[in-house]
Structure prediction request, 1022 residues.
Amino acid sequence: MAEPDEVNGRQRELFIRKSTRVAASYLKRAKALSEMPDAAKPFFDVLENVYIRLTDVQKPEDMKSIGTLCVMVPAELVYAAGAMPVRLCSGSYTAYSVGDDYIPRDACPLVKAVMGFGKMKVLPAFDNCTLLVAPVTCDCKKKLAGVVDSVKNTVPLQVPPLKREDADTEVFLKELYRLIPILEKETGRQVTAKSLAEGINMVGNAQYEMSEFLKYRRHVPALMSGTQILSVMNAYSYMPVKMWAKQMHRLNEEMKLRLVQENFVSRKNQPRILVTGSPIAFPNIKIPLLIEEMGGVFAADETCMGERGLYDPVSVIDPSFDGMMRALASRYTKPCTCPVFVDNSQRIYRIKQMIRENNIQGVIYHVLRGCLVYDYEYQLMEEAMGKMDIPIIRVESDYNEEDVEQLRIRIEAFIELIKLKEYAAVHERQ
Amino acid sequence: MKGRKIGTAVVCAVCAFLIVSPFFAKDFVLYDFHMNVSDYHYAKTQEEKPLSADTAVWFSYGDGGKAVYYGVNEEIQEDRLTVYALTQTGEVSVTRGKEDPIRQDSLGHFIAALPAAELDIDGDGKAEKVYDYARADFGLNAFNPAPQRFLTEEIPFELVFAERKYIMVYYGNEILKDAEVLVTSYNGEQKRCRTDEHGWIQGLTNRDIREGFTAVYPPDGENVYRMHYALEDYPYFSVHFWKAHLPLAVIFALAVIGIMAVYLIRNRMERNNPAYAIYSRERAGVYPGTLHQKTNSKFLFVRWLCLFTGMFLWTYAGRLIHQGQTLNEISIPVFSCPFNLDQVAEVPCYYLSHLPALFGRFGADFPERNMAYAAMFIATTLLSFIFLGRILCGFLCPAGLLQDLMDKLRQALHIRPIVVTDRINRFLQPVKWVWILLFLGFAFTGGDFCDICPLKGFTTAQGGYWTNLYLGGFFAVVILVGSFFIRRFWCIICPMGYLMGLFRRFNLFRLKKDCTSCTECGACYHACPMRIKSIYTEREKENIQTVDCMMCGECIHKCPEDHALSMTFCGKTIYQSSRRTFLSKFSGKKEG
Ligand code: SF4
Ligand code: SF4
Ligand code: SF4
Ligand code: SF4
Prediction:
């Protein structure tokens, strides 16, 4: 019997074939949704490189990759140590099926996919990471941090389950301080006040570009397909932030042009839908695809692989080294709407804010199978949406294509429901 | 190991000294700033007769606060002059002519007298007997509560310094009540003034008292008494000026020692903390200077401008503008000590901390014609409290500026702050209540809040006034050290600020929150110098202005969400947070 972590040649080949096929087909479908802006192409190229051509992430030669397993790892700090953070939360169906052998059945597919990549060793973007930083958030990630350590050196990062008291955020601050020497040992470079400032500036620049972009995204009718936008956001995981910001700048310029030329990709009355819930990581973009293929507009997302990762900027109060560290600790916990926090009522407020800003007409609540923390919050969300008279459905999905048909029917019905509701509203007014 | 022990011992000793020494501050040699009168020299003046002198004899000062000069009209022979001087033993020394009246035990109160002259002053064609005197008060502590009177038979008419803004009149060894005197002002103008029931001359300006005036009293048709009064004024950069600054210098020196002590103690404590261990000395305080931080904020610029203006208005302005005449009856609540007479307007902290005096002075003591003054004083205080409130803290209070400057100094020195966590803040709240109790109640127990007031030493010294500091000197050191590490440390516990915040409901300036736009990022909370947590946790109410909020706008400045926080004036938004403005510093376009 083969050792569990030794994957033989044939299986490996099969794995590669299957996973690249899925990725390629999803990318094709995303591109085909509507006319893609030229400036979005580099982002798609990055995803192609990582998932189809199986090359390493594009980065300067001497830069090491540090894998991160959650958006709560401060990218600024990793850049300050002279490394590039690569977000390894993946949506690969094939990796998921491999990981299934190592992770209990009821655990979430995202965790399994990470473990699968760890075992298969086919994704250079993954394999070239010399270190994984795994925030201890939900139970699945907590145990993953322990298990994945067997394939890759992993540092768990303790995230406080509460955050209202300053003592709670101090816990995270201490964790970040603890992370510094570990990163420094890995990269051989020092985290200095200067490099940390540089990291904050770099990521800040990306955030500036993104917040400009979000203004275009809010436009009705839409200027760019939401699934393509999600892919652009996903590409951030595999691009050095400077490069991403530069491309984003170009994309913004193109968006401006589109706005002037009134080159829209949707009609005015297409239902605008917000997706929230468990992470939607490439290539598992079936839900956004379905929304847009069924005639909805994927207008906003409140998921950690989408907007959330880059949305909140660091607000440095005292520009000392310690002050910057505090600002990081605060930024990566306080505004974070991740349901692993005991009290997460702020997520509902955030969604209300997004509904208002993006003219949302319906909410799709995505739950990955086994993702308990998000499932917990559905009740509250449903209540809140009911009060606002915004239709909401909960869709559960797994990392395979078996549930696509069922999802298609439900999403289609949901979109029809919104249309009907709008129609009735218009009639009532008349 | 041994070195460290010695270091710790030294730090402890310094701290102990810091804590103990202010208790003896009054007798502490550095705080003894009375001028020694025997160091003055006495000579005939070389200058012209001052406009204020209506008499044939007068006194003046010079030589940077080291000389007292006498002058007599040319036609009068000097040896007819008699100079009386008070001494420490209570006896009056008498000298004649050019003879130097300054003795080892002189107190700095001289009266020069000339024999009566026959002059027709009132122009009725009949000559009256005119008695000319000149009085000098110098080298003294201007806040000496006991009036320095001669009350000798030879000088039946006498002007006595009663209170910092009042001069009282004695005639025939009795207080001259409700009488009319003719006053020649510092600029030569003449006016008719009345004395009140205390014998205090009404209608004298600060400048009259400071630069000299003459009071003329004709008790009957035959005699006229004239006295020129010259209190020693303290010009800039005179000995007095430097002496007045001495307490401040001592306070600052002690503060430096205190800051160093805190700095060292913190480093020591953190050496045992694994999280900070390697950073406590090497990196934690390092300011990179390359962080993109500046977002131009007109609002904050205006705030700094106002603060500096406030500092000017509450220190020198009275002397430099408006002819030394301050708006005595208008009171604007900031924490700046009114023992400085050069404040442009009155400050209510004295009466608020001496409520019995308030009732006493304005109620029973004050004669009716002062009710207008009292009404104006109380009305302006209340109006400021109600309509302006703590925006005065954020924009005008000199004590606030002082603390903001300490904070800037800390940044310049690359020392990181002490972060006030909610735990520390909860501990500070009772401290605030103690101060409020002391502020309002100490006077009722017979105490004097001014003796423990930490702000007595600052603006007074800057204005060039001497003060006795008592325990206040100690607290002054504490708040300097505190505000170095914690921005607006004193404001967190300031009783005056608290009172100003009570009427926030009626303030014209309001702080508002649009809860639907807030992401609970906490930036506002961390930026708030007053550590107000509710601005970040509030999710329902629009009105988030707490009693502590001083409308400084820092929270708005650091908030990254569009219109989540805003400040309004009469319901109109004047400043609000904006994501674009916040992030534009990272846009890479402009820098600087
Ligand atoms: S010592 Fe303090 S309380 Fe007293 S008058 Fe001065 S500032 Fe006000
Ligand atoms: S709280 Fe601060 S700014 Fe306000 S009056 Fe007190 S010392 Fe001045
Ligand atoms: S800074 Fe703005 S967004 Fe952040 S918690 Fe405060 S009000 Fe909310
Ligand atoms: S709440 Fe805002 S305006 Fe008020 S004191 Fe705090 S930072 Fe200043």
Remarks:
- The first strand of chain B starts at residue 41 and ends at 44.
